[in-house]
Amino acid sequence: MIDVEQYILSSREDRRKHLDLSTPCDKRGGSSKEFRGLLAHYLDTSVPSGRKVLLCHACHDGGCSNVKHLYWGTHKDNSIDYLENGGDTFYEKMVKKYGKEEAHRIRRTGLDKSRGCTAYTQEQITKYREILGKIEKKHGWISKAAVELGISHTQVRRFCLKHATDML
Q: Is 103 inside a domain boundary?
């Protein structure tokens, strides 16, 4: 038996060479959790634990249990499959949601690439500081601030570290 953690280090092509998509999907019921055991048995690998190694469906049918349609993959493999199957990139999803002009604006100015976080306008900074100033700094204040500001807990912390250290 091959340890799946070692097996996943093989190239994507090697991990997919057993695939035969000319065979039909096999829908016996169940979920990817059960299908992992089938694939491990078929490939003589261990069953992965954790979230590093994924069960990928080359047929793009999550209900398929045909081992000739399944392979061990990574999150990157799953993303490649998604795009190869006609899935939208993040930017394409933004265009559909906001329109091309707004998506372009968000892409151009919405993220501060040097810091990897949201870039706030001076108006937003002033507004957020005002709202944060009204919240009593006791247990749970970051959760309350996240709701009030309409941003995540992480964004509240990052905002405070960058723009409101006096409020921490």
A: no
